């Protein structure tokens, strides 16, 4: 504002008062006239800018300049001033959203479109040409996970997502024009990674009480196990069972610890070693399963008495048999083992 632009004044072929000219400009808030008269010099007419121009609001100003003489009646001449406003890089690119919120499953393939950001610049020419670039990614491991097209603003996956590793990413994007100096605008894309049931439950032994005495009472704790599933929600909710059947009870509400409990009495002489398969399944669809084998040996208890192969032995001896003669051999067996099966006769 205050800039002055010289105008060529009007001419009048009359003389004296009939050639005394005055000027008026059609009403407007951006321009005014300044007429300077001097006895020594020819009068000078200037167009003065009174308010800053804005090409994006009014790209062309059309003004009517009138010149009137001092005659009676007064005569008037007019001309039109067409003022085209040249663009200046006075507008920074603006995104249509400051935050783009996106959700993608962790199974999304490489090349999947994450988001398409859009920024506009009301300037023209190079002042309005916008390019996009990534200025930061949180966490940093996402730096090579996304590819941004600098012209279209498309963001695509260049790797694989893993909900169990990183659950959300924030990508900060800059839109910059090609003016001098360039102006820029900013936005961010927040990507929420959705869980997919891609992890099977894992089972491991925390403590194992083996071998188990065969005279152990029902309800005896055989093993303490831990169960985990890296997925979340229903995908990470686990239930367990054992085959052949032993009682399985949850030790905590989250079912991450379970105990194996005897549900019936053991008999080493029938089954000396139990091979149990513990199965853990999650609540995903489809469900994933993890298994583990437990080998539980049974410790002998002295629960079997020696048994003769017959209860009565009938023997006939001659009365003249010599002392020390073996006339019968008795045999007894015991199903227990170790010292529990060592037999003495009396």
What does this structure look like?
It is found in: Cell membrane. Its main location: membrane. This is PCDA5 protein. Keywords: Calcium, Cell adhesion, Cell membrane, Glycoprotein, Membrane, Repeat, Signal, Transmembrane, Transmembrane helix. Pfam families: Cadherin. This protein is 0% helix and 42% strand. The protein has strands at residues 4-7, 22-25, 31-36, 44-49, 60-68, 76-84, 94-95, 99-105, 113-116, 119-120, 130-138, 146-148, 154-157, 168-177, 184-194, 202-208, 212-213, 221-228, 238-243, 247-250, 257-261, 273-282, 289-299, 307-308, 332-333. It has 3 domains: 3-84, Sandwich (Immunoglobulin-like); 94-194, Cadherins (Immunoglobulin-like, Sandwich); 202-299, Cadherins (Immunoglobulin-like), CATH 2.60.40. The protein contains no helices and 25 strands. The strands form 8 sheets. Strands 8-15-14-11 form a 4-stranded mixed β-sheet, with no helix packed on it. The chain is mainly beta. The protein starts with a strand and ends in a 13-residue tail after the last strand. The model has no long low-confidence stretch (mean pLDDT 89). It is rod-shaped.
Helix content: under 10%
- Quaternary: single chain
Instruction: Tell me the CATH superfamily of the largest domain.
Output: Cadherins
Element-level helix/strand string: EEEEEEEEEEEEEEEEEEEEEEEEE
Query: What do we call the CATH topology of the largest domain?
Result: Immunoglobulin-like
Please give the CATH class of the largest domain.
Mainly Beta
What would you report as the Rg, rounded to the nearest angstrom? 50 Å
Quote the beta fraction.
Answer: 35-45%
User: If classified by CATH, what would the architecture of the largest domain be?
Assistant: Sandwich
Number of domains: 3
Number of helices: 0
Question: Describe the biggest sheet?
Answer: 4 strands, mixed
Q: How far is the N terminus from the C terminus?
A: 131 Å
**Shape assignment:** rod-shaped
Runs with pLDDT <50, length 5+?
Answer: none
Mean pLDDT: 89
Task: Give the beta-strand count.
Answer: 25
Give me the side-by-side strand order of the main sheet: 8-15-14-11
Broad structural category: mainly beta
């Amino acid at each position: 504002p205050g800039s002055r632009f010289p105008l060529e004044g009007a001419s009048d072929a009359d003389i004296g008062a009939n050639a005394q000219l005055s000027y008026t400009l059609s009403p407007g808030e951006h321009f005014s006239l300044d007429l300077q008269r001097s006895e020594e010099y020819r009068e000078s007419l200037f167009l003065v800018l009174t308010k800053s121009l804005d090409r994006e609001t009014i790209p062309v100003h059309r003004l009517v300049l009138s010149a009137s003489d001092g005659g009676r009646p007064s005569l008037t001449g007019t001309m039109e001033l067409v003022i085209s406003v040249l663009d200046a890089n006075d507008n920074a690119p603006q995104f249509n959203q400051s935050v783009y919120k996106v959700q993608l499953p962790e199974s999304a393939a490489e090349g999947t479109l994450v988001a398409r950001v859009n920024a506009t610049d009301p300037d023209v020419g190079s002042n309005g040409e916008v390019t996009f670039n990534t200025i930061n990614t949180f966490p940093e491991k996402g730096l090579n996970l996304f590819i941004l097209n600098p012209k279209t603003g498309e963001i695509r996956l260049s790797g694989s997502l893993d909900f169990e590793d990183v659950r959300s990413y924030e990508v900060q994007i800059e839109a910059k024009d090609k003016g001098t100096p360039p102006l820029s605008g900013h936005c961010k894309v927040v990507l929420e990674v959705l869980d997919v049931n891609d992890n099977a439950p894992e089972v491991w032994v925390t403590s194992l009480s083996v071998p188990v005495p065969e005279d152990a009472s029902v309800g005896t704790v055989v093993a303490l196990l831990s169960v985990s599933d890296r997925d979340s929600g229903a995908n990470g909710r686990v239930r367990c069972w054992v085959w052949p059947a032993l009682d399985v009870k949850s030790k905590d509400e989250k079912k991450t610890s379970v105990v194996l409990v005897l549900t019936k009495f053991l008999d080493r002489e029938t089954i000396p070693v139990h091979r149990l398969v513990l199965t853990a399944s999650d609540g995903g669809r489809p469900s994933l399963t993890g298994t583990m084998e437990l080998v539980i040996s049974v410790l002998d208890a002295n629960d079997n008495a020696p048994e003769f192969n017959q209860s009565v032995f009938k023997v006939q001896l001659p009365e003249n048999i010599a002392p020390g003669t073996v006339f019968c051999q008795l045999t007894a067996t015991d199903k227990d083992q170790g010292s529990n099966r060592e037999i003495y006769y009396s």
